[in-house]
Specification:
It is a single chain. By secondary structure, this protein is mainly alpha-helical. Strands 1-2 form a two-stranded antiparallel ribbon. α2 crosses α3.
């Protein structure tokens, strides 16, 4: 019953995440009055709960990815910062990097 309308509902929620099931149901009833009314309120509530759970899961996955990427980046940056100058490489103040001959 709601399958053909899920994309629209997802768009509405993206634009206004705090929409209630009653508001969504009234929008659906405006489009299809013979199909939607008070008896479908519980069905819309269940869909809304599932869509919000899905969105939260996606946000958690993205957060975990960003966090793990930042940790890897910090580790790489820390290890490259602690690298030492080796061999005949020398730093001359004001002259930049140069190789001794």
């Amino acid at each position: 019953m709601l399958d053909p309308h899920v994309e629209d509902i997802e768009r509405w929620l993206a634009a206004a995440p705090r929409l209630t099931a009653l508001v969504i149901l009234s929008r659906l009833a405006e489009r299809c009055p013979s199909q939607f009314g008070p008896p479908q309120h519980t069905t819309v509530q269940r869909l809304l709960k599932a869509l919000r759970r899905k969105t939260v899961g996606q946000l958690i996955a993205v957060t975990e990815l960003v966090t793990s990427t930042a940790t890897v980046h910090d580790t790489i940056e820390a290890s490259s910062t602690s690298a030492t100058i080796s061999g005949s490489d020398r730093c001359h103040v004001g002259a930049g990097w140069s190789r001794s001959r």
